[in-house]
Amino acid sequence: MTAFLDSRLLRRTVLAAAAVTFAVGATACSSDDAGSGGTDGSPAAAEAGSADPTGYAFDSSRKNLATAVEKAFASKDGKAHWDGDTLVLTVDGDSSLPTAGITECRVLEHLVVDGDRTAVVYPDRRFDCETELADH
């Protein structure tokens, strides 16, 4: 039974990671603010004025990353936002299930850069991903 649950969790994690990766790329490529923000409108000037750390997938911003995460977790009514350096994903669902928080945390942890943190919030419980993944 444990092997079955592990394979289902792995499959769900891979699918969710693929969906988020695709959404990040699509969001970054279609972003209206990708070339704005600098004094001359150039990408270099926009980067110089950005408070986002670098290294996100597809040279995305934190705003685009949160938007992509929301799209990827839309089936769970996912809402994402940044709280300081923590990417917080709020989802609907049952936090008492054995895999609650784990799949979401594994996906989120692969999207952020060093120094960022992640959390998943269910209606009745918040999972700090670093702690949650250390326990599994």
Concise account of the structure shown:
The protein is an alpha+beta fold. It has one domain.
How does this structure look, described?
By secondary structure, the chain is of the alpha+beta class. It has one domain (2-134). Helices cover 44% and strands 15% of the residues. The protein is built from five helices and four strands; from the N terminus they run αααββαββα. A hairpin with a 2-residue loop joins strand 1 (79-83) and strand 2 (86-90). Residues 26-50 have low confidence and may be disordered. Residues 1-28 form the signal peptide. Keywords: Signal. InterPro entries: TAT_signal. Residues 30-53 are annotated as: Disordered.
What are its keywords?
single chain; 136 residues; alpha+beta; 4-stranded mixed beta sheet; 5 helices; 4 strands
| SS-derived structural category | alpha+beta
Q: Residue-averaged pLDDT, rounded?
A: 76
Radius of gyration: 16 Å
Task: Tell me the total number of β-strands.
Answer: 4
- Which range does the strand content fall in? 5-15%
Give me the side-by-side strand order of the main sheet: 1-2-3-4
Kindly report how far apart the N and C termini lie: 17 Å
**Number of folding domains?**
1
Helix content: 40-55%
Tally of helical runs: 5
**String of helices and strands:** HHHEEHEEH
Shape: globular
In terms of per-residue confidence, which ranges show pLDDT below 50 for 5 or more consecutive residues? Answer: 26-50
Largest sheet: 4 strands, mixed
Keywords: Signal
Signal peptide: 1-28
Region (Disordered): 30-53
